[in-house]
TrEMBL record:
This is Phosphoribosylglycinamide formyltransferase. Pathway: Purine metabolism; IMP biosynthesis via de novo pathway; N(2)-formyl-N(1)-(5-phospho-D-ribosyl)glycinamide from N(1)-(5-phospho-D-ribosyl)glycinamide (10-formyl THF route): step 1/1. InterPro entries: Formyl_transf_N, GART, GART_AS. Keywords: Purine biosynthesis, Transferase.
Length: 186
């Protein structure tokens, strides 16, 4: 299956997906890495791996207009699936409708808890003993689509948002390639 990955930043989940795609039995390939930030470090990481990249700054464009440009780039690349990986843009309803059921996101919390930003700090503030990461299908509700799989981590004494984020990231890099492979195999 042909997968496009959308990023806005460093792209470590994109790299995890791309590295897993090298395995001979991996059922997906990354055909495009796209970004709303032409300076996203993950674009260079993709290019170094020989993956085609595309970027367009969203600045000055209406959301629906920008999303239609993304959609055109995804289709031109032959993408059948979209994996959001640190993509920091809200999606227009039209774009979601076009990719619904074939668009995944990774989120650093045990959904449905802690949708949105600053999840690690919120987990600490709440005193939760357990935290984790989730992969879900993308619907019109931010971080609200059907959860496909999760991995848990323990919250440890002395944890900060940064230490939690880095332990969560390890789990993200394990979970996302697994779930994407399962989904495209169906
Ligand atoms: C990850 O924690 C992801 O769950 C969240 O944003 C971060 C992106 O990291 N949505 P990276 O760009 O994949 O390194």
């Amino acid at each position: 299956a042909k997968v496009a990955v959308l990023i806005s930043g460093r792209g470590s989940n994109m790299v995890a997906l791309a590295d897993a795609a090298k395995a001979p039995d991996c059922p997906y390939e990354i055909v495009l890495v796209g970004s709303n930030d032409p300076a996203a470090p993950g674009l260079a990481a993709a290019a170094r791996r020989g993956i085609p990249t595309w970027s367009l700054s969203h600045k000055g464009l209406k959301r629906a207009e920008f999303d239609m440009a993304v959609d055109a780039a995804l289709r031109a690349a032959g993408a059948q699936w979209v994996a959001l990986a640190g993509y920091m843009r809200l999606l227009s309803p039209d774009f979601v409708a076009r990719w619904e059921g074939r668009m995944l996101n990774i989120h650093p919390s045990l959904l449905p808890r802690y949708k949105g930003l600053d999840t690690h700090a919120r987990v600490l503030a709440a005193g939760d003993p357990v935290h984790g990461v989730s992969v879900h299908l993308v619907t019109a509700e931010l971080d609200g689509g059907p959860v496909l799989a999760r991995r848990e981590i323990q919250v440890l004494p002395g944890d900060t948002p940064e230490t939690l984020a880095s332990r969560a990231l390890v789990e993200e890099h394990i979970l996302y390639p697994q779930v994407l492979a399962e989904m495209v195999r169906r």
